[in-house]
Sequence to fold (300 residues):
Amino acid sequence: MVADVDRWLPWAIGSVGLVLSTLAGWLVWTLVSAHHLAERRARQMTAELRASEAELARSNLELERFAYAASHDLQEPLRTIGNFVGLLDRRYGDQLDDDARQYIGLVVDGADRMAGLINDLLGYSRAGQVQRVEEVDLEETWQLATAALAAAIADADADVSAGPLPMVRGDGSRLVQVLQNLLSNALKYRTDGRVEVRCHARRVGDCWEVTVQDNGIGIDPAQFDEIFVMLRRLHTREEYPGTGMGLAIAKKIMEEGGGSIRVESEPGHGARFVLSLPATDVVDLRQVGPAGADQQEAVT
Ligand code: ADP
Fold:
């Protein structure tokens, strides 16, 4: 009996060992081939992703060129319509009845609105064109934006002010446009009380966060994304005039320049637009405290 066991035990151990090593070999082989397969698939997916990114960039560029050319070329016939309807009104206005004069008024109004839209579309395509990145003094930028809207600020008797603003990296003239768009919205989406607009800056890591805050009608958080979409408006033209392009242009300018824009608000409690802009390495003596400190409040 013992002799029997002695005979078959090494065979049994050997067989089990063989099965186990075959299994282990098979497992290793499976893992290695799965790894190779995953690597090959990942390489393939990366190549596909790069190709579709390049295709997307190409078609975006084409679309931008088309929007620019179309809006540019549309200006000319629109001017002709406006000019001739104006001429019609001046020359033959006294021979026309009230209805005809009202129709002329509607044509002029439509032409004006279309001119505004075309202008904004041009602004949108320009916002996508290569930006000049320079050191920008935001105090000057703010002054230029408020000067451009001086008449509207005076009309609204608005209280508009800014704390110390830093140097940032960006395209100066486009940043004027961003601030101008935010400021004119703050004047437009007002409540019955006196309009108050404040611009502040604070350092966050390598960026400056610049906020433009108003005390107007505010925005429902459910619509935060929507307001940055081209031609998207939350109100009718009768309630508030506009084309729905201002924030889309601002977003495009900010993102093309390596920054971002977001909004914080509640209906009835004003809106606070936050621009994030890359800081410059230039030491600005107006900065309060050591430059580069995280979360440093630069203004009060
Ligand atoms: P427009 O003002 O021409 O409609 P914008 O792109 O500038 O276009 O703004 C999009 C929408 O966002 C506006 O229709 C308005 O509803 C909302 N909005 C923008 N700014 C403000 C603000 N400061 N307060 C309240 N709502 C705002």
